Amino acid sequence: MQDKQLTDDEKVLLRKQDTRLVSQFLSEKLEKEAKKHWDLFYKRNETRFYKDRHWTMREFEELAFLEVGANGKKYKTLLEVGCGVGNLVLPLLESYPQGKLFIYACDLSPRAIAQLKADPRYSSQCIMGFECDITSENICDTTGMGSVDIVTLVFTLSAIHPDKLRGVLVNVREALRPGGLVLFRDYGLYDMAQLRFKPGHKIAHNLYMRQDGTRSYFFSISYLAELFTKAGFEIISNYYIHRKTVNIKEELDVPRIFLQGKFRKPEEQCCDTSLKVCVCTYVCI
């Protein structure tokens, strides 16, 4: 599938963004204070900002209940990076019989993890919620190496500076069992949210600063494929999803573009072992 073909008006909007970029000083400050900005986000919004993501079970059949997980296990193990307050993992847990799913759920924000654990659906027998900056911490210290069946990266990588994305993927690859999957969904190139950014918000190519200090990257198919293959994954699927956000009351009909994919850790690993360090990258949305 091709990238969206821009109209002349949309090309003008993108050119205007380049007239005033985020300064190097501010860009570095945003990176250093990423945890602070996400913690403030959850302080302001608590559990109200995102709806529960029941759609993930429709989009990814791999999340459906199976009798046996990896290596003959009687349960499935999942790692969600950037879990926020649990909008994906808590509904997923409800769909599984007791004892058939164990979830590692991590986020950069300690406040998000606290709110996850305060949810009445949270059970320490089924979920381990923990704070983790996946840009600098080894996720395997918590999960163990090669122990996870599935990793979900749902609106997570877009919050990370692209310079660190390959390291993040190496980090989660080490947690996956051979043959394990990464399920990905995030913002696609030329999504309306990207086109709406004003001058003064662009940090780098396809990377932007929001008003609250968090960041958003917009992915192309080719760039995502390059990231995963260089991190040692096989591409199962990688495609754009076109949706519309409709608000009848406000007479809004906004086209949206997302990127969705599935990527597999090979049964026999053959990627660049020089990156076999779990000093990697970051979370959430």
Task: Give your account of this protein's structure.
- This is tRNA N(3)-methylcytidine methyltransferase.
- Its EC number is 2.1.1.-.
- GO terms for molecular function: RNA methyltransferase activity; S-adenosylmethionine-dependent methyltransferase activity.
- It is an enzyme of class 2 (transferase).
- It comes from Ranatra chinensis.
- The chain is of the alpha/beta class and 285 residues long.
- The protein has a single domain (8-275), classed as 3-Layer(aba) Sandwich (Rossmann fold), CATH 3.40.50.
- The protein is 28% helix and 26% strand.
- The protein is built from 10 helices and 10 strands.
- The protein has helices at 8-17, 24-32, 34-45, 55-59, 89-94, 110-118, 140-143, 165-175, 192-195, 221-230; strands at residues 76-81, 101-107, 127-131, 148-154, 176-187, 202-204, 207-209, 215-217, 234-247, 252-264.
- A hairpin with a 5-residue loop joins strand 7 (207-209) and strand 8 (215-217).
- The protein is globular and about 55 Å long.
- The chain starts with 7 loop residues before the first helix and ends in a 21-residue tail after the last strand.
- Residues 270-285 have low confidence and may be disordered.
Annotation, overall tally of beta strands:
10
The fraction of residues assigned to DSSP E strands is 25-35%
What is the number of independent domains? Answer: 1
Order of helices and strands: HHHHEHEHEHEHEHEEEHEE
Task: Characterize the quaternary organization of these chains.
Answer: single chain
Strand order of the largest sheet: 3-2-1-4-5-10-9
The number of helical segments is: 10
Overall structural class, as computed from helix and strand content, comes to: alpha/beta
